[in-house]
């Protein structure tokens, strides 16, 4: 049997209480297949600090990211999930796709996912970047989904991170308790369903897979985040496995534990 493949899907600004079964059937199918762990995100509940913590396991104080400008960042000293997976096993391949450039763009601020230029040139670390801030996340999320489906189907990378931000964009403009937010959640769930279909196909050939979905923060009902309100700090990890057993995780954990626990699953897989 092949070694474990990991897909981590990041959905920016997702409120799980508003992503109901009717609105997000693929996410709830994942939850029904697997397990859920709750997390409380530290303040400031902003994408830069949040994703830096989730993807490295370092605290705000350690990685030094305090906003979305990344001034004073110490990310060079805190490798991300994908990089650490490769450091543990250099034969692994990785894939990262996002329309928020600071996550993955080698030419931008950050990036949180280390560039690993040698491996990119050797096509062992593939990076797909779009600019959702300029062109809108409804369009760029769809492009990211297309590239991710193709990349997972063709290559089945050992460790992947795929990110969507349309829900966060909608909440900022219209509020979280709004039809546009619900519709954005539904579009992202369709993207998730396409990714899960690829995982299903590859798993039917015997590959073991672990899929996890998480978010960096929630939103106020009227939109906005950054503070410590319960609906804003609430995060979660939904995870499910194919052709392997899920590790036992607690019902609640700090966000600094996400990357170490995923790495531990890879090591045992």
TrEMBL record:
Pfam family of the protein (one): Phosphodiest
Domain of life, per lineage: Bacteria
Membrane spanning residue stretches: none
Protein name: Phosphodiesterase
SUPFAM superfamilies reported in the protein's UniProt record: Alkaline phosphatase-like
Gene3D superfamilies linked to this entry: Alkaline Phosphatase, subunit A
InterPro entries: Alkaline_phosphatase_core_sf (IPR017850), Phosphodiest/P_Trfase (IPR002591)
